Amino acid sequence: MADLALSRPRIRPGTPVAALVLGAAVGAVLLVPLLLPLDQSAVALDRTTLPPSPAHPGGTDDLGRDVLHRSIYGLRVSLLVGVVAAVAAALVGGLIGGLAGLLGGWVDRILMRVIDTISALPHLLLGIFIVAMLRPGLGAVILSIGLTHWLSTARIVRSELLSLRTRPFIDAAIAGGAGRTRILTRHLLPHVLPKIALAVTLMIPHAVWHETSLSFLGLGLPPHLASLGNMINDGQRSLLAGAWWSSIVPGAVIVAVTLAIAALAGRWRDHLDPRVRAELNL
Amino acid sequence: MIKVIGRRLAFALPVLLATSIGMFLLGAASPMDPAKQYAGAAVFTMSEENLAQIRANWGVDDPLYVQYLRWLGNLLHGDLGWSTSRHEMVGDVIAARAGWTLLLIGITLGVVLIGSLVLGTLAAYRRGGLLDRGVRVAAYAVQSMPSFWLALAAIAVFAIGLGWFPAGGLTDVRSTGVDVADVAHHLVLPVAVLAISQAPWFLLFVRDSVAESLREDHVLAARARGLAGRTVLFGHALRTALLPFLTLVGTHLPELVGGSVLVETVFSLPGLGAVSVHAALGSDFPLLAAITLITTAVVLAANLLTDLAYTAADPRVRIDG
Q1: Is the pLDDT of residue A1 over 50?
Q2: pLDDT number for residue B43
Q3: Which among A77, A119, B11, B45 is most buried, taking Cβ atoms within 10 Å?
Q4: What transmembrane ranges does the database entry give (chain A) (predicted)?
Q5: A213, B148: Cβ pair inside 8 Å?
């Protein structure tokens, strides 16, 4: 209910622009490591903190590393973490939402109240806590996102199942003698899966923001690894000395890519059943 | 009313309890040895017996449920434990810093509420107009900007580039006491960044609900009576939209808390956010667990309060479940 207002179509960057940005980003992420591999530990102290130029479109950082080149590697890690974590969160949410939607009754009521209460928890703090106790690293970050971002998928799956249950074709299947497993796998899952897929897509930007936030705080991916959050963190000192690009460029990459993903996912959402739009907001 | 409070608490308390159990289990599963953390660098010169003594004193080797109940009991008694990253009592650390975080969040919330109510209402008045489109494009763009990045961009422009505001801290390095004007000057950038990064959701909500209530019968009637546009807009349309909006503020508090952690870190403000990051880096379970639990309880309580205020203000609303 909290996000009803966001469900209405808003001004979004045009679909072609978003597709172009995302295509370029994915292309760069796939091709650059093949064509221009990055040595994560290499430094070049003869060209430190150079402003953006044709040779270094994103400038260089305080260790002489090319900011744009490292940003592309960072984007690769962030997208990977984002997709894996979004899938993990959707698995947790799908399981709990499925339980609520299939069993209904008091199980559903209790689970939904629990979900409402959990959505009132400060999830960044909980995420920080999870990572801190497990030692920062890839697995801890993914777990932290999976455990804090499953609520929306649970709501979607539950409401979809509740509305499917009352439809005539389910009654027909039951009358035809189909067992529980058959109804679940042949009649319910085909309707729920596209919605889960959309929920995963809408979740990816959120997972990326969570990961970059943790990395920025020094609680995410290992510091020597080129990741967008780490780079923004590293660039802070240069930024205070006037070299804005080493923090601003990796951040701009996050903004462009997450905007593009959100815009495309939003278009997809608008084509789906309008009834579920309200639930699909993340 | 009392029944509503009872039902809300019946869910909030178990969730809080479950959160504390989950946090405790995570802490117990953590590879950190609290005795070694407590000893710090002295661990290299300390004998194994001394370490064993610390462990025995703390009951680290007791069964987990005994440890959990002791921890919970101490928390309820107000004994929050010893911070291993700051080497201070957890209660003292929190008491010294909670005020600054509350100040930051409080001012920001005020700015966001007033700003989004005014801008959102004006945007709704001329739907599709220049202001409306501008507001929505900006809201959409800001939504995808990490707040810490926005903070760094603000520092680059307003602190480094233009030199209007300080880049961080709460008081001038040269000052000896806490001067209100100085603190206010230092808070301008953090509050602005946090407010802007939280504003899109509020702004779009106000815009949409005012736009909707502008089409309602009583607003049309007010217009037909020839009341001034401003009176209709703020006196009738906004008033209808105000109540649901204020209750939803509670549901958005978790985002605000998360944003304040990041903004405090960037601007090195001496609040709870920065200290919890420090605690997290040092795997300081007592401090981090206390901050997370207290924040969770405060946010849950705030949600409960806004819900109750809503029921009290609008008799048509009944909270079920």
Answers
A1: no
A2: 65
A3: A77
A4: 17-36, 77-103, 192-209, 243-265
A5: yes
Determine, for residues B265 and A109 on separate chains, whether the beta-carbon distance falls below 8 Å: no
Q: Tens of pLDDT along B190-220? A: 888 888 888 888 888 888 888 777 777 777 7
Report yes or no: A138 and A82 within 8 Å, Cβ to Cβ: no
Q: A28 lies in a domain?
A: yes
**Minimum-distance CB partner of B137 among A11, A121, A218:** A11
Q: List pLDDT tens digits, range A38-48.
A: 776 677 677 77
Judge whether residue B102 has pLDDT over 50: yes
What average pLDDT does range B264-284 have in this prediction? 83
| Cα angle: A18, vertex A21, A26; to 5 degrees | 120
Does pLDDT of A11 surpass 60? no
Q: What is the nearest CA distance from A239 to chain B, expressed in angstroms? A: 6
Which pTM value belongs to this model?
0.81
Q: Identify whether A67 is part of a domain.
A: yes
* pLDDT band of B151, cuts 50, 70, 90: confident
Residue of A235, A242, A254 with shortest CB distance to B146: A254
Virtual torsion, Cα A97, A101, A105, A108, nearest 10 deg: 10
**CATH code for position A88:** 1.10.3720.10
Calpha distance A52→A67 (Å, rounded) = 9
Per the structure, the count of domains in chain A is: 1
From chain B, pick out residues whose CB is under 8 angstroms from the CB of A242. 160
Distance from the B224 Cα atom to the nearest Cα atom in chain A, whole angstroms: 28
β-bridge partners, B176: none
Query: Given phi > 0 = left and psi -120 to 50 = alpha, else beta, which region is B306?
Result: alpha
pLDDT score of B317 more than 80: no
pLDDT of residue B41: 64
Which of A117, A216, A251 faces B15 most closely, judged by CB atoms? A117
Q: How confident is the model at residue B270 (pLDDT cuts 50, 70, 90)?
A: confident
Of the candidates A223, A61, A75, A58, which has an alpha carbon nearest to the alpha carbon of residue A137? A223
Residue B280 with chain A: CB contacts under 8 Å: 128-129, 131-132, 217, 219
Minimal-distance CA residue of chain A relative to B205: A5
Nearest CA in chain A to B267: A236
Task: Domain of residue A135: give its range.
Answer: 15-33+62-279
How would DSSP label each residue in B242-285? HHHHHHHHHHHHHHHHHHHHHHHHHTT-SSHHHHHHHHHHTT-H
The beta-carbon neighbor of A8 closest among B146, B208, B289 is B208
Instruction: Give A62-91 pLDDT, tens digit per residue.
Output: 777 777 888 888 888 889 988 999 999 999
The reply to whether A73 falls in a domain is yes
Q: Which residues are CB-contacts of A173 (< 8 A; sequence separation ≥ 6)?
A: A182, A183, A186, A187
* Residue A8 resides in a domain: no
CB neighbour list of residue B31: distance below 8 Å, 6 or more residues apart: A135
Contact across the interface for B11 and A135, Cβ inside 8 Å:
no
Segment A223-235 mean pLDDT:
82
Q: Which residues of A touch B292 (CB under 8 A)?
A: 122, 125-126, 128-129
